[in-house]
Amino acid sequence: MHTTRLIIVAVGGQGNLLTSRVLGEAALLAGVPVRMSEIHGMAQRGGVVESAIVFGDALSTVISDGEADVLVGFEPVETLRALKKCHAGTTVITNLAPLPPFTVALGKGSYPAVERIQDLVAAKTARLIAFDATQLARQAGNRMALNMVLLGALLRTGRVPVPQAAVEETIRSSTKSAFVETNLKAFALGYAHVSA
């Protein structure tokens, strides 16, 4: 089986770990070989959270610079920071709603223009899918469902070898019952927002 390397980056609390767990469990459910690892960099304090998921016959979850086939970013600056993991054929999916660090609010830092971030990412990769996923999550009924919106967008690209039905089944079985319908709606909105 062809190896596909996926990096997911987010700020702590945005749901990266649930997203990678749903995707990994869905792959196992569908019989797709998968390996995963995570980095929790001060996640509880709004630090970066990075998941590496490798589909196929790879022996390692390490995704070195220039090796990611797909990058999903829950926050624009985190997407930009992870750009070094990409190559010229990478597909990037990113949320455009910024979540500036507290240093920006204190006036000790500045947040780059989101348009500039898009230009930098688009110049170095094959395909950039950039949209306000937070707005779609609100439309689904909960802004915290941002992760499911981006998961839907990812599945729609066809870049990961996991069937949609397996992901939906895993959302039903792996998320708290109070959030299942909202998560499924958010997933569907993200899926519908992207052209294959």
Descriptive notes:
The two termini are 21 Å apart. The chain has 196 residues and is an alpha/beta fold. It has helices spanning 16-29, 76-81, 102-105, 114-124, 133-140, 146-157, 164-174, 180-193; strands at residues 4-11, 34-40, 48-55, 68-73, 86-95, 127-131. A hairpin with a 7-residue loop joins β2 and β3. α1 (16-29) crosses α7 (164-174), α6 (146-157) crosses α8 (180-193) and α7 (164-174) runs antiparallel to α8. The protein has one domain: Pyruvate-ferredoxin Oxidoreductase, domain 3. Strands 2-3-1-4-5-6 form a six-stranded mixed β-sheet, sandwiched between helices. The model has no long low-confidence stretch (mean pLDDT 92). The protein is built from eight helices and six strands.
CATH topology: Pyruvate-ferredoxin Oxidoreductase, domain 3
Radius of gyration (Å): 16 Å
Class based on secondary structure composition and strand pairing:
alpha/beta
Strand order of the largest sheet: 2-3-1-4-5-6
Largest sheet: 6 strands, mixed
The string of secondary-structure elements, in order, is EHEEEHEHHEHHHH
**Beta-strand share of residues:** 15-25%
SSE layout and pairing:
Blueprint: E1 4-11, H1 16-29, E2 34-40, E3 48-55, E4 68-73, H2 76-81, E5 86-95, H3 102-105, H4 114-124, E6 127-131, H5 133-140, H6 146-157, H7 164-174, H8 180-193
Parallel strand pairs: 1-4, 4-5, 5-6
Antiparallel strand pairs: 1-3, 2-3
Helix pairs in contact: 1-7, 5-6, 5-8, 6-8, 7-8
